[in-house]
Amino acid sequence: MALTRATRVLSVLAATSLLLAPALPAAAQPSSTPSAPGQGMAEPPPLPSDFPLPDDDGAPDRTYEKKTECVRSAGSPTVLQTKPWGQDMLRFDEIAKFGATGAGQKVAVIDTGVTPHEFFGGRISGGGDYVVAGGDGLEDCDGHGTEVAGIIAAKPTDPGIGFRGIAPDAEIISIRQSSGNYEFRDEATNQTFKAGNLSTLAKAIVRAANSGAGVINMSVDSCRPTSAGAISPPEQQVQRALEYAVDEKNVVVVASAGNLPEGDCKEQNSPDPKNPTWLVIPPWFSDYVLSVAAVQRDGQVAEFSINGPWVSVAAPGTEIISLDPASTGLANQSVDEKGNAQPIQGTSFAAPYVAGLAALVRQKYPELNARQVMERIKSTAAHPAANGGHDNLVGYGMINPIAALTAFIPAEEGIAPDKAIKVPFRMPPAYERDWTPMQVAMIGTGGGLGALLLTLFVVHTVRRNRRDDEEPAPRARG
Q1: Which one, out of 18, 131, 178, 181, has a CA that is 20 to 30 A from the CA of 60?
Q2: d(CA 312, CA 407)
Q3: Across all residues in the chain, what is the average pLDDT?
Q4: Residue 387 is part of which domain span?
Q5: What pTM, to 2 d.p., does this model score?
Q6: For the chain, how many structural domains are there in total?
Q7: What is the pLDDT of residues 20-32, one digit of tens each?
Q8: Looking at residue 316, what is its pLDDT?
Q9: Catalytically annotated residues
Q10: Alpha helix (H) residue ranges in 345-434
Q11: Nearest C-alpha neighbor of 172 from the set 10, 9, 323
Q12: How many other CB atoms are there within 10 angstroms of residue 126's CB atom?
């Protein structure tokens, strides 16, 4: 099972390009225990109570060698003034009015490393390296991690540049966990392994949780079919590391929902929330992770965004603009191995919007724990028209930073949520009309009419008799 991202080559600005190597690495395979597709796997099984915390030695699991040169700029950088559509949709210009810029918050980025771009303003530190022994995480050969971190905390000083991060004063801790440019070749088995797998991901999560970060962003996923078997030991290591981060170290964890194609996943997931056909790690562990789907400009979920019952929320994931890891400029394109350019997109770039929002919420509400922050982000999202306000495509919907920073959440005040009350349905009693008033009215009306007719008859008779009495007697004729 491989940790993967879409194979791509980054480009800088509208007119220049970066050369980047393909995707990410192989990981240990899941247990071979057979199971019916998706059955009982919408949620992971609980960990054994004695399952150990992954031992973080801070070192790569193998000796990887660089096989592809790091990303490089193909031209001179120019100022990219266009503001990403996601910034307008999420109302970036209004966020600072609510006293939230990410100041004092640390976000650990577990990725391909982060280049110390000048738009971070020195707010970046190295947290470790699982690709090169002794590294500090501040080299990004692939270019991916720098772009992700830029969406979180970039702060250009030039007012002519429209792009900026959602939490522009937050600090970034870079942990390099994977790289498509580095690989290890096992001569005995003739297998090649890219740098990064579930075991090193688990160690990186533990390291990030111990780094002092309040938020972790992981734009890296492993996807495999549910038919491959039950949960594997490396997957359990990730599960245990996430449990440690959230429940023991009070860290908000954010992960991308995954892109198609992703690892072994070539098709969209089953629409049945109880029977997924694919499992995406870490999103599968939804008890501990805010899993983020990608939405496009028209508000529809992006076709490449993997669906699943574990999806928590959604954020912009297409037509991305972020930092160029190979220059002082910005990037807005990707270029494949054939030289074909296309806009940068992916759930990898939706996740950092949510990670940055988590940093803003932690700054505004320092009394909230990690789970409360996660719940605030979900409860204030724009819910889809689905049962419970949640579906497999966008989870609880597009994030709403302004609402997340201002809404009143009853649970935070100790107010219990409303409970459904069972009200039995009963037919109303039969309505038996009382006809007495109608009968009295009809009798009275009939009696009155009879009296009227009798009166008219008597008057008519009296008048006729009168006429007969007054008629003169006939005269005798002579």
Answers
A1: 18
A2: 19
A3: 86
A4: 3-413
A5: 0.82
A6: 1
A7: 333 333 343 444 3
A8: 98
A9: 111, 144, 348
A10: 347-364, 370-379, 401-406
A11: 323
A12: 18
